[in-house]
Amino acid sequence: MGRMHQGSRAPFVRTAAPALLALAGVIAGRPAPAQQPSPAAAPAGEGVAAPPPAPSPAEIDLAAAEALRAAGRHEDALGWYERAIERGSGQVRAQALFGAGEAELALGRHYEAYLRFDRLLREHADFPALGRAIQRSYEIGVAFIEGKARRPWLCWQVRSPALGAEILARLVDNYQENYFDYALLLIGDHHFAEGEWRRAADAYLRLEQEFPDSEWAGTALLRRALCELELSAGYRYDDQPVRRAEQLLLEYLRRYPRGDRVPEARAALGRIAEMRARLYLDNARYYLRNEGRPRAALVYLEAVLRECPLAEAAARAPALLEQVAARARAQGDGAVAERALRLAGELARVRAAAATPSATGTER
To answer: Is the pTM of this model over 0.90?
Structure first.
């Protein structure tokens, strides 16, 4: 389970050192404050506080970088941040990494900013403002997935949705934030677009399980159903993915009867009905024509009436039922012939009733 973090601020530079602040201001282009006369030396033994410790070189670098960034001189600030990263340690280095990431973002360099924040998250888990670093990494991941950010590749800057999905996946695996439901949705959508149905379904399922009250939970349920449907390439041999897809689609319609994606869910159910009708008709033809077994063919045609009578493919069933009846009579099996003709009539009535406008002018 990931770690929970709350963003916070903490001073990482000893601002008590006036010389440090004055130097940072001069570097940033601000005039140094006028020097104040030093107070008279206090008599010995009166308990005068010791002067603050002198800032370290890394703290001076960091103060200069922060002042430059505050002045909008982000490119100049990066050089000083780099010095602070190289010469500092602990929270000074952590703050320098964070500031460098912010400067890179301000310059529109998402990939370079990602490298800074990623190092910060990996090396400084005790950084007080870790929540802000997580959010920045999340924003960078979203920008890459949505095609709004680029990374260097040879001599070009290229889009990389895969990097965005990788960034978001690492975040949701290691941290917990209440906005990670959208991260999981984007991860699932990326894998869906790439035809990686199982990985997409796993991301959608995780969204449903970890954020059941999310506004994206219904979308995740529907898209998980579509993943199962896409996984049914071998439906002729294994219908379990189709069965799972059908159950998920029906669950979506039950839970979200007025959802924005109801038409998409109904269209997917219609697609399943077509697949199933074609499969049943193919099996019926095989038993009737290849093996001369009208009774076995009738079993599949009865399934058409029971499970998918309104499918477009089901319109071809009555003609096939007449062939079943003819073959059964030729074999002396009057019962099967009678059942086949009765089924053909019932199927025709069901389809005619569905096509007849109701009293309100809508179709049943």
So the answer is: no
